[in-house]
Amino acid sequence: MSIVSRGFHGRRGGDPALPPGQYLTEDFPVLSAGPTPRVPPAAWTFTITNAAGASRRWTWREYLALPAERPHVDIHCVTKWSKLGTDWEGVSLDTLFEEVEPDAPYAMIECYGGYTTNLPVEDLLDGKAWVAHGFGGEPLHPEHGGPARLLVPHLYFWKSAKWVSGIRLMDHDEPGFWEAAGYHNYGDPWREQRYEGD
Q1: CATH of domain 61-191
Q2: Claim: this prediction has a pTM higher than 0.70
């Protein structure tokens, strides 16, 4: 009988900024489940719809007119790479939700290309999440989710959905694309919540 529980591997290199089981990379690996959607900014829109059916839609121009923030955050992929001290530009979800009452506890993130991921609404508010359109001082490239992606750095990076097109609030939780395929429903990297049952 093993006395070491599954998933206990310590921190590589002893870096306290790395969650368990992660390794540090200087690159920005590109991982996608399908082809990269190419969404011209002029055609991009973002819509939040609450559980009561009230919605607010922003065009690219309207979105860029909102106050932007520049989060400096670490990101952690479920495939075990971590990139520390990344620099982004985007609009806080707190700003976007000023125009739509968050009236339900769960959110489904919807994206161009059909990708979805689910999150508790509380993980989108209070300075925890952004719709990001810039990375490293440049516009966000399509392979990294441009023109805009969700950024939720305290969870595994699949929750930071690429090519984001909207958020639909829900009274009950539903799995998104990877969650329905066996990934963990929440995805906390510090608890190694990679797959269902972790």
Answers
A1: 3.90.420.10
A2: yes
